[in-house]
Amino acid sequence: MNGVGWERVRMARLGGEAAVVGTRRREVVDLRQVSSQTVRLGRVQPQHPSHRTIYCNDSDANFIARFKSNSISTTKYNVLTFLPKGLFEQFRRVANLYFLMISILSTTPISPVSPVTNVVPLSLVLLVSLIKEAFEDWKRLENDNSINNTAVDVLQGQNWENMPWRKLQVGDIVRVKQDGFFPADLLFLASTNPDGVCYIETANLDGETNLKIRKALEKTWDYLAPEIADKFKGEIQCEQPNNSLYTFTGNLIIESQTLPLSPNQILLRVMMNSMSVPSKRSTLERKLDKLILTLFGGLFMMCLIGAIGSGVFINRKYYFLGLFDDVEGQFNPNNRFVVTILTMFTLITLYSTIIPISLYVSIEMIKFIQCAQFIDKDLHMYHAESNTPALARTSNLNEELGQVEYIFSDKTGTLTRNLMEFFKCSIGGEAYGTGITEIEKGQAERSGKKLSDDAKSDTAVHEKGFNFDDARLMHGAWRNEHDPEICKEFFRCLALCHTVLPEGDESPERITYQAASPDEAALVTAAKNFGFFFYRRTPTTVMVRESHVEMMGIKQDVSYEILNVLEFNSTRKRQSIVCRYPNGRLVLYCKGADTVIYERLSNASNDIRKVTREHLEQFGSAGLRTLCLAYRELTNDLYEKWNEKFIQAKSSLRDREKKLDEVAEIIEKDLILIGCTAIEDKLQDGVPVCIETLARAGIKIWVLTGDKMETAINIAYACNLINNDMKQFIISSETDAIQEAEEKVTSLVKKGAHRITLSIGDGANDVSMMQAAHVGVGISGLEGMQAVMASDFAIAQFRFLTDLLLVHGRWSYIRLCKVITYFFYKNLTFTLTQFWFTFQTGFSGQRFYDDWFQSLYNVIFTALPVIIVGLFDKDVSASLSKKYPELYREGIRNMFFKWRVVAVWAFFAVYQSLIFYYFTTTASQNGHNSSGMIFGLWDVSTMAFSCAVVTVNLRLLMENVYFTIYVLLSTFYFYLTLLLVPVVALLSDFFYLGIQRWFFPYNYQIVQEIHRGEYEGVGSREFLEIGNNLTPDEARSYAILQLPREKSRHTGFAFDSPGYESFFASQQGVFAPIMAWDVARRASVRSKRTSHR
Amino acid sequence: MNSSGGSAAGPSSGSGDGSAPPRRNSKRPKYSKFTQQELPACKPILTPKWVISVFTLVGVIFVPIGIAALMASNNVVEIVDRYDTECIPASMTGDKVAYIQNDTINKICTRNLTVPKDMDQPIYVYYQLDNFYQNHRRYVKSRSDAQLRDADQANKTSGCDPEKTTKDGSPIVPCGLIAWSLFNDTYNFTLGNKNLSVNKNGISWASDRDHKFGKDVYPKNFQNGVLRGGASLDPNKPLNEQEDLIVWMRTAALPTFRKLYGKIHQDLKANDIIMVTLENNYNTYSFNGKKKLVLSTSSWLGGKNDFLGIAYLTIGGLCFFLATAFTVVYLVKPRYWVGY
């Protein structure tokens, strides 16, 4: 999916019978709620006052209404508006506006420089920005075109014709096939499903992945075949297009009957609901703004000093200045105040170079290339299985990735694969399942034991959703267990008590189960493998092919009448059905969280309870998701009585949910415990190593999960999140609260602790968390796009975080810091030289440098090298970045863009500008060439300029290596100065760098030293899977180096107490000190949720 | 939250949005050294060895250069004579400005200069002004390059305020404050009773003569106003031959500056006494500026300028010192340098 915020409704599979695939389709009238022209993303459009009337299948009648076409446009500009609107956007930036004003100022006589000085750089900057805008808009246009040209079947006469979406007219009848996307908001007429229903997925609208049922009006069920559909004529009166997902009012007038339409008949595309990603600005950039403000302050001070000087200086005694009585205001000694004011403006124009005009555009270009060329194309972050490369959805936040201190991670689907597999179970007090979870392996490793991967036994079955092995149960062996009856109850409960839809061939091999949650599918799959094959569901029955009869191989299709379904929700945390066996037996099957089931057990089954409780704890500590199963025999009388209440509750109009819950309570009691199931949610590849690496990098990882405390802790153990020495703190919370809690915690850390936070998640429930954090990372390559759409970066696997943060983030951060401080330095140096000159020109504001030199200094002479640094600078290679995660801590502490760093650069800027100015002027004071001729102003300034350019570029060379060629000029004298000045200017820097590296080295410098002389090349790809393996020597030397300087910082594990304490300590008395606690404590004392979702 | 697993296992439905054929549409990024950021880079690491060697190297290079430059500067013989205070009648010292502005007073003044060392020809004659802001913005821009270059553009006097035109509106050539304030002291040198001729040809930059000042541009209406700023020009000589003007109009960078007056093509012996007969016309008294006469020989490096030599020597010496200091520190208190 591409980066633009349009969304499509994903058509889900039909729940219909086995029909030929090609004929599965639905016909629909196009309502066209989509108002097509440039849809404002994410905002409520002003509503038109009235409703609209649509004539179905009658384009002539609709023609009068002049409905808009179905093409969408997400572009920002068109050919005509591009220039004015694009320029307007550009001038909303303060720096550009400032330079526009300076450019205007420079056309007045007050200006010491010709307009070219400011116009040229400004034009270049604008040109580059506009080209970038045009390029991005072009991509949006291409994207729109591909959407608009998607084909859909439209009824034309009596045939379906393939048409692009954009040609669709309001009132057309279209056919949408299974798994297709809706081309517009549609009214559902008919389906190949005999019941006139269809199942749709709305993940792209609201992020919910469960299937939703839509049912057509009975009146329209028959308009299925094109010949009949063509006869469909009707009139729809409905509301104007809007972005509401859950409301719809309208009427279908057919054969002079008025039928009310509800959201039940509406299939939404809702272009209007497309979200635009909220734009985030990086912390570094915000700090940059402060730096720019400081520069403005500096500029003002310099101008003030110069202006006052000019007011004092001006005097008629300098007769050569021709200050006669009619002299203009700026030089009139009679009014020194006016002189001061006007000179102020002169100097503002003169010193405008202090504001690095090309900085923002350079940064943008650098970041853009970093994203498009480096992050998106990194082979280390390409996931072959899902064919998903990494995707940077915004280029604003690259460097933020290098400073992340807190990671908030969703568990399911992010740390784990969200592939639920039936792994173990406990039936009637007996535990089954011989598998060893990864978590157990991890635990065993920690305690020093080595678990051998024993060969799979013959009975082991591994399919999607089922990874179970126990000879006592498989292949019908359960019949020989001591209590086969309870086994039967167990399997039947699995096969009956669910809301799964079977699909495909009704054979065990080819059937697929559609379930709201993969846990349910896994349980039904388990039942299938145990010989209770659920293969068909009708509105009132569930068909199960059972092979429990005494003789092997004989199967029997049993139809169970499902009388009531008591649905799962997060308060009930259980699900029940009441079913009638063919022999009339009435049973209630219930499955749910251990706590809720145990509360409702009859007193009879005490012994099983205790054993099962132990098993639950065992499974939980192995990181498995558990569910308890129970049943209750019902008598007819009891049931009938209850059913009346149930029907009453179901048909009540007010508080229906609440009443249903109350009614369910009546019957869900005196249950008999059958056992429990344990489902494994496998960890993704490389998660433990990744987390360990990130922890070593000083990143604190918080996993926010709705799991049982034990499961969560064990997942954490397995992930290396925590180890035995650490205090544990896990926030757990209810599902419905978790989303809120996640967001709250995220923004609390963000605001309270002033730390950079990153949220990673894969689903719609993580969206708020991702948007609250500084950086949102979505797991891509899965079906739901909601998380990716809301994310700033999308990666396919959790483990790619290592590359994203430690390599790309770190480099981007360091590069950006270098670029910014360097820009700051070079412009300050240049401008200060100018400033010193002002003192010797009678504060007249005479420019020191040639106009062209000054205008091209930023955009030509010093631009390319810094961009090269921004793209290619590498302190240590990618593999070393991962090998020494500790390097990352320098980013967390913002070591490279502190005010101290800026101050050092500023110091050198002052020093060097003094050298440039005084050395070149003093050296040329009495100097002349060998034919006696003296240098004039422009000769000296050219010399100073050359020195400045050479020095400033050499300075960058000290940071990195690149090649630039400058054509040099005339005399010995020039060369001698050119040699002397940069050397003197840089001597201090060199001295500083030497001292700094010698006595106060950065970590990366140590790593550089360790690996000095090593050649980095193709071989570095060996490190694809992060190798944290230092040779013993390296480890020792590294450790030694770390020792004396490391100020006992906590290691940054998520549940590490110093980290947690410092975090909350920093909360104390700052921002909402109690709230963080509250969220955490309230969440942790709340009853733990079992794994059922 | 749930990645509904159905899609992976579901039979191909034949609809357009089905599973892509494997590998065909692979989104695997292409490998290149650029995108994988594996371009080779050379990283200068300032290890002690490097720091010490670089300092030593700089010292080794700079000290000889400094010595050479200093020697060159020392070989240059320079005579500097400030005359603005001397060439004023004792009666007028109270009001120097009145003296200099009174055209009726004879401004001739005689100075005797002793040659300290042998001076080989060519000997350059400079005048040095002080506190004269040739780099003032108002001054620098008060000229018209178009007018100077091209006889047809005599009317282009836009930047020349306030010396644009005469009262009747005809353009001044050359216009502007710079030309108007042209230096007008003159020097005559005699050695014994022999006149030392001053060659005033080739004292300006050839590029200025050839490109900036037209050979068919003649001075017009110059210094005709009420206020005379400085020297007059011979209206019959084209501008590109008016070398004093060309030199003057190459404005100086600093308020203290020298300008070439002429060349003496004759060797001078030590203790020769040169008599300078000068006309003290130019007004520096208004703004308390000094006037100096400078006679100087030349070396390969140019004129007398100790600064470069001293700077080189200082820096070279400093580098040696730092190299030594670093070495001492390195030996006394070494940091654990990895890999050494």
UniProtKB/TrEMBL annotation, chain A:
Its EC number is 7.6.2.1. Keywords: ATP-binding, Magnesium, Membrane, Metal-binding, Nucleotide-binding, Translocase, Transmembrane, Transmembrane helix, Transport. Mg(2+) binds at D410, T412, D762, D766. It is a multi-pass membrane protein. SUPFAM superfamilies: Calcium ATPase, transduction domain A, Calcium ATPase, transmembrane domain M, HAD-like, Metal cation-transporting ATPase, ATP-binding domain N. GO terms for cellular component: Golgi membrane; plasma membrane; trans-Golgi network. Residues 54-118 form the P-type ATPase N-terminal domain. Residues 788-972 form the P-type ATPase C-terminal domain. ATP binds at D410, K411, T412, E520, F568, K591, R625, T705, G706, D707, N765, D766. The chain crosses the membrane at residues 291-314, 337-361, 819-837, 857-876, 897-920, 932-954, 961-987. Its cofactor is Mg(2+). The active site is at D410 (4-aspartylphosphate intermediate). InterPro entries: ATPase_P-typ_cyto_dom_N (IPR023299), ATPase_P-typ_P_site (IPR018303), ATPase_P-typ_TM_dom_sf (IPR023298), ATPase_P-typ_transduc_dom_A_sf (IPR008250), HAD-like_sf (IPR036412), HAD_sf (IPR023214), P-type_ATPase_IV (IPR006539), P-type_ATPase_N (IPR032631). It is found in: Endomembrane system; Membrane. GO terms for molecular function: ATP binding; ATP hydrolysis activity; ATPase-coupled intramembrane lipid transporter activity; magnesium ion binding. GO terms for biological process: Golgi vesicle budding; phospholipid translocation. It catalyses: ATP + H2O + phospholipidSide 1 = ADP + phosphate + phospholipidSide 2. Belongs to the cation transport ATPase (P-type) (TC 3.A.3) family. Type IV subfamily. This is Phospholipid-transporting ATPase. It comes from Musa troglodytarum.
Automatic annotation (TrEMBL), chain B:
It is a multi-pass membrane protein. Its main location: membrane. Residues 144-153 have a biased composition (Basic and acidic residues). Keywords: Membrane, Transmembrane, Transmembrane helix. Residues 1-22 have a biased composition (Low complexity). InterPro entries: CDC50/LEM3_fam. It is found in: Membrane. Pfam families: CDC50. The chain crosses the membrane at residues 50-72, 307-332. One of its GO terms (cellular component) is Golgi apparatus. Residues 1-34, 144-167 are annotated as: Disordered. Belongs to the CDC50/LEM3 family. This is ALA-interacting subunit.
